[in-house]
Amino acid sequence: MNKNEFVIGTCENYTHDGQGVVKIDGYPIFVKGIIRGEKAKIQIMKDKKTYAYGRVAELLEVSAHRIKPKCLVYGKCGGCQLQHMDREAQQDFKREKVQDVVTRIAKLPIRVNPVLDMEVPFAYRNKGQIPVDVKHGSVKTGFYRIHSNDIVDIEQCLIQSEVINEILQVIKKDLKVYKNGKDLRHLLIKHAFSTGEAMVVFISRNRDIPHLDEMIAHIQTVYPKLKTVIVNLNQRTDNVILGNCEYIVYGDGYIVDELQGLKFYISSKSFYQINPVQTVKLYQQVLAYADLTGQEKVLDLYCGVGTISLFLAGQAKLVTGIEIVPEAIADALRNVALNNIDNVNFVCSDAASYAKELVKKQQQPDVIVVDPPRKGCDEITLKAMIKMEPQKIVYVSCDPATLARDLKVLCENGYEVQAIQPVDMFPQTYHVETVVSLVRKNPDAYVDVTIDMDELDLTASETKATYQEIKDYIFEKYNVKVSSLYIAQVKQKYGIIERENYNKTKSDDSKQPKCPVDKENLIAEALRYFKMI
Ligand SMILES: C[S@@+](CC[C@H](N)C(=O)[O-])C[C@H]1O[C@@H](n2cnc3c(N)ncnc32)[C@H](O)[C@@H]1O
């Protein structure tokens, strides 16, 4: 297949980032914006030998699930990927995405539940992290164009709260009037839906932002519930958005939100779920799967500002929340006091170190809830969880691939998955949140693996992923297939001893294909991810 060539094909399926897969004689072409069953004339944009990227030149058969995207910059801005699909097609895509990894990576013969949908799937984001570019009197605020650092200048984002859009427009206007935004990198705006309170963080290379007081006053006239304004100093040269140093220039540095009668302090750096309407459904599912009687000791690993811990507290004997970010733990501690709860502890610690310590002290929670970041639980945390033998584990995840990887480990070590519930926390995008209920099997029903304490102190060379796991990881993340031979070559390059048959050519003069540099980089990244190098 050649660049710019046109082919006609039908979309058979989707990649995990929502692109359609069209196969021509078994050769996959990844195409954005096409729906399963649709036939199209496709222009090849990039040919990669074993697969290609294409674009729809003309739709020849249109799906009944196709709708007109609401957003004017859909397709240019990288934020949403599924606005051309109706709700049913979006939910099918998300359920199948979770089902695929559950079957293929975790190898579990269980059917994933239908996705818990959102009734009004727009204006749901309570947090906007908006890049700013002020140059020669022009002010651009918006989102990065796909695969680039160019800002798509937009007036409003339809998945973002209207309050955030409104505040953003006021700031943008003032930046033009005062010509004062040259040092600004990002604006972070948080909006607590239930109380209406808003926080604005100016992320700047320079602490002094001229006319800041006038700008704050202007925002307040338009939005009186502006509660706090912070200047975050970020002089880093990488892509990390928030710097370490912050100056509260107005208010107390936090806002308060309420979920199901519980109040939560939120500061600029703390993690707080971005879709409060769906968060309530998510947490209710966690509660249902934890199935508490009031007698249980619960461990909530990766607890953020303690939201899940406080939800569980009413039905548990004792909840201990563990979180690595000190600001989030400070918020969590204030949240305990704010809600008059006396059966919750919070500890600022790495989840792995804390769990390992509990194993050493032979402490056994009855239920463990985990809600890790995208990379999932590390192996030390998983092994410590298994060693603690809780009766139930509730796993909350925003990345189905790492979730499936971790479920496989848990299910090979005494746990059984009872139910898998996806929740649509991110409508219009390819992301999906998932809650899984696991119970400890009867010890007679499985072969127990003995894990010594020494094993918890894993070194890099002891953690190993199989060839298939490496292939799956790269395919999940980049839609790229790599061969075992290429993986073997890269492992050898990094000094990981390799099996004979992959290392040696079959005869001296036979030629083996050499792993190309782009695939080598992906494999090396996967090896790093699995802590093999
Ligand atoms: C997906 S959030 C979940 C937070 C919370 N459960 C909620 O629903 O709001 C993951 C949290 O894990 C924290 N975290 C990341 N790495 C960690 C680690 N190694 N140990 C403990 N917490 C960690 C992050 O700071 C973040 O607050």
Automatic annotation (TrEMBL):
Q: In the Enzyme Commission scheme, what number(s) does this protein have?
A: 2.1.1.190
- What GO MF annotations does this protein's record show? rRNA (uridine-C5-)-methyltransferase activity
Q: Which residues form the TRAM domain?
A: 1-58
Q: Which domain of life is it from?
A: Bacteria
> Which Pfam families does this entry report, sorted A to Z?
TRAM (PF01938), tRNA_U5-meth_tr (PF05958)
- Enzyme class, top EC level, equals transferase
Q: Which UniProt keywords apply?
A: Methyltransferase, S-adenosyl-L-methionine, Transferase
Q: Which NCBIfam families match?
A: rumA (TIGR00479)
State what protein this is by name.
Answer: 23S rRNA (Uracil(1939)-C(5))-methyltransferase RlmD
Q: Which organism is it from?
A: Copranaerobaculum intestinale
Query: Which gene codes for it?
Result: rlmD
